[in-house]
Design a protein that fits this description.
This protein has 245 residues and is of the alpha+beta class. The chain contains 5 helices and 15 strands. It binds zinc ion.
Length: 245
């Protein structure tokens, strides 16, 4: 894969009025956590006028951006989902092994970016954000397009009993997304978990695309906290409605 960012044509193209990308460690896309910054010169088509990035807290709350945003504007607080119906505002999340999830309703014209680690996923950040798109913006669940980005994969992502216990509590189909490696440990397919949650929520299977790439075992493409043991960097992923002037 030679490109600096990963895009998913079946999820959205420019013709849909949506620009999106999943970052890699080669992307050079930079954002300012806690504020709105200008899209960098490396940012391909400059459809976004500002990029919004916020502090992430492994929770389930969403920042709703339903008014224009100017460069330099601050967003103090912590959120793990960002939702906007404002053209030109690119909502972004930063991940290393957690799952970046992008959503849009092509008719209602509203987009979301979600940072889903195991904590957020188990706490229901994806269904909660979908519910917000519906209740606050009038999105239709069956029409939502979802793209699930690169993250720690089932090949490498080992979790222990406390994580498995939480998963069993909230997710009846938990056995479908874990592969035991010992009595107390298992490999978790976080992307499959997110996908199954979305299906249970009523999203159309044909409108959900998963990028099958593991941040832990593809060091040439991705940063990984699990592999590197420190935060050497994060990948930025984002989505914006294209301004129609
Ligand atoms: Zn892997």
């Amino acid at each position: 894969m030679a490109s600096e960012v990963i895009t998913v044509p079946s999820f959205a193209t420019h013709a849909d009025g949506v620009e999106h990308f999943f970052g890699t460690r080669l992307s050079c896309v930079s954002v300012t956590p806690g504020g709105a910054s200008a899209p960098g010169s490396r940012h391909r088509d400059q459809a976004a006028t500002v990029m919004v990035s916020v502090k992430q807290v492994h929770g389930t709350d969403a920042l709703v951006v339903d008014r224009p945003v100017v460069q330099g504007e601050a967003f103090e607080g912590g959120w793990d989902a960002l939702v906007t119906d404002q053209p030109g505002v690119m909502v972004t999340v930063r991940t290393a092994d957690c799952v970046p999830v992008l959503l849009h309703d092509p008719v209602r014209r509203v987009v979301a970016a979600i940072h889903a680690g195991w904590r957020g996923a188990v706490a229901g950040i994806v269904p909660k954000t979908v519910a917000l798109l519906v209740s606050r913006f009038g999105a239709t669940i069956g029409r939502l397009q979802m793209a699930i980005g690169p993250s720690a994969g089932p090949c490498c992502y080992e979790v222990d009993e406390p994580v498995l216990a939480r998963l069993r509590e909230v997710f009846p189909e938990w056995q479908a997304v874990v592969k035991p490696v010992s009595r107390q440990r298992a490999h978790l397919d976080l992307r499959a978990f997110v996908r199954r949650q979305a299906l249970a929520d009523g999203l159309d299977a044909e409108r959900i695309t998963t990028v099958d790439a593991c941040t832990i075992c593809q060091p040439d493409l991705f940063f990984s906290y699990r592999r590197e043991g420190v935060v050497n960097g994060t990948m930025v992923s984002g989505i914006a409605l294209v301004s129609r002037r």
